[in-house]
């Protein structure tokens, strides 16, 4: 009979990592994606008449021309459309593109700031994006729809903590929310952050000149709303950050 050896317990740190789900999103992000899909499905119900669709877009899209007229002489659409426009999308490609970027950048931000602050961030970043769009296209009657401005705001917020190294170590995207928050000055000294911002600006500059690299090229892209959202997220993220206010002045990224 062969001698039996007692089972050996492998140290925890030497054990292979367990299977990690391909998508492990915070519930609030899943809810956000679900809300966008529900709204998109409602937009595309086959029995809507043209008059009903026109009413829907007029009532919930952002239109700069609203603010060129006295608010007392119109309905209350000016009050909610700076937010509700971010829930509407013009095509499947439009919502898929925004949804993918939302999963990438919203997840670490939501894990860090929590549900309530995330919802407030969405509302205010949407309004900031719409504000810059209205300033540039003052009095214009075109419709602004889509979550791109909010996604850009989340990108800007992520630049303050998701890219830097923590304690000299790189962490995965699942743990990026644990990184310390960089100050604005330190962010601009981080090679990783600066490289990302430069590429992001270059992409929006191409869009401004009518060159679309990715996304829905069949529709005009509100590059200015992207910039408004990004600046909001990058400059004001500290107001939403619930973690200890560690402002690093040096970055090794």
TrEMBL record:
Residues 79-239 form the Peptidase S54 rhomboid domain. Pfam families: Rhomboid (PF01694). Keywords: Cell inner membrane, Cell membrane, Hydrolase, Membrane, Protease, Transmembrane, Transmembrane helix. InterPro entries: Peptidase_S54_rhomboid_dom, Rhomboid-like_sf. It is found in: Membrane. GO terms for biological process: proteolysis. Its main location: membrane. The chain crosses the membrane at residues 20-42, 83-106, 118-138, 144-163, 193-215, 221-240. One of its GO terms (molecular function) is serine-type endopeptidase activity. It is a multi-pass membrane protein. One of its GO terms (cellular component) is membrane. This is Membrane associated rhomboid family serine protease. It comes from Rhizobium paranaense.
């Amino acid at each position: 009979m062969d001698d039996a050896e007692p089972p050996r317990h492998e140290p925890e740190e030497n054990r292979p990592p367990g299977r990690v789900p391909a998508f492990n999103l915070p519930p609030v992000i899943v809810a956000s994606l679900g809300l966008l899909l529900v709204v998109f499905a409602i937009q595309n119900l086959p029995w809507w008449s043209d008059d009903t669709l026109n009413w829907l877009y007029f009532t919930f899209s952002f239109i700069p021309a609203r603010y060129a007229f006295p608010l007392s002489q119109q309905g209350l659409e000016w009050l909610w459309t700076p937010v509700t426009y971010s829930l509407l999308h013009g095509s499947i490609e439009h919502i898929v593109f925004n949804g993918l970027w939302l999963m990438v950048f919203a997840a670490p931000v939501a894990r860090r700031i929590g549900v309530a602050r995330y919802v407030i961030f969405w509302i205010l970043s949407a309004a900031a994006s719409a504000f810059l769009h209205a300033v540039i296209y003052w009095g214009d009657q075109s419709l602004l729809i889509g979550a791109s401005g909010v996604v850009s705001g989340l990108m800007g917020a992520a630049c303050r903590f998701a890219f830097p190294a923590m304690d000299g170590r790189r962490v995965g995207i699942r743990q990026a929310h644990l990184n310390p928050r960089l100050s604005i000055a330190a962010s601009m000294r981080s090679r990783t952050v600066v490289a990302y911002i430069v590429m992001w600006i270059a992409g929006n500059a191409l869009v401004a000149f009518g060159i679309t690299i990715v996304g829905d090229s069949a529709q005009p892209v509100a590059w200015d709303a992207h910039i408004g959202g990004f600046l909001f997220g990058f400059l004001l993220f500290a107001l939403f950050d619930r973690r200890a206010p560690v402002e690093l002045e040096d970055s090794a990224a």
